[in-house]
């Protein structure tokens, strides 16, 4: 069964940036899309929200993949 939010390899830089944002503790991650757009100005609001949702849905798998602790 295909998941609604499959991990996308082309989004790895976004995932890593979201993890860096999370580690700063400056924002509740539900509000992190504008911070992602600050780092990647070419992202639209919808794209940033989609990437954030994807990161949240796949956090456990991404954590294993990248070794975030």
Commentary on this structure:
The model has no long low-confidence stretch (mean pLDDT 93). The protein is globular and about 25 Å long. The longest helix has 13 residues, at 12-24. With 69 residues, the protein is mainly α. The protein has helices at 12-24, 33-39, 45-57, 59-66. Helices cover 59% and strands 0% of the residues. α2 (33-39) packs across α3.
Secondary-structure topology with pairs:
Elements (H helix, E strand, L loop, with lengths): L11 H13 L8 H7 L5 H13 L1 H8 L3
Characteristic terms for this protein:
69 residues, mainly alpha, 4 helices, globular
Uncertain stretches of 5 or more adjacent residues: none
SSE succession: HHHH
Tally the beta strands. 0
> Could you tell me the mean pLDDT?
93
Global geometry:
globular
Strand content: under 5%
Structural class: mainly alpha
Biggest β-sheet, characterized? none
Condensed summary:
With 69 residues, the protein is mainly α. Helix content is 59%, strand content 0%.
